[in-house]
Amino acid sequence: xxxxVLVVDGEGRIALYxxxxxxxxxxxxxxxxxxxxxxxxxxxxxxxxIIESIGGKNGDDSKIAAEIEENQVPLMAHIAPVKMDDGDVxxxxxILQD
Length: 98
Prior knowledge:
By secondary structure, the protein is an alpha+beta fold. Helices cover 27% and strands 38% of the residues. It has helices at residues 19-25, 29-32, 37-40, 44-54, and strands spanning 4-9, 14-17, 62-68, 73-83, 89-97. Strands 2-1-5-4-3 form a five-stranded antiparallel β-sheet. It is globular, with a radius of gyration of 12 Å.
C-alpha cells in the first residue's frame, strides 16, 4: 500500500496531501486545504507532533505510532520540519503508513 504524505505550512494549516493521506486521516481534499491541522485530523497525537515540529521543539525527525480516533486505524508517521537554507522552519511534512 502506498504511503500518505501530508504537508503543513508554518501556521499549522494543511498545505497539501496525497490521496492516501486523505484516506488514512479521513480528510476531504477540497475543504481541508488551508484549515488548521488540529481541526481536520482526528489524531491529536499526530497533530500535536506536527505543530511541535513547526515550532522546532522536536529536532529534525520524529516517529510516532498512533491510532486515528474515529476508526481506530493504527498509524505510523515520520514527521520532519521543512526548513529554508538559513534554518528557518516554514512547515512540516509527515509520511504516513498504516
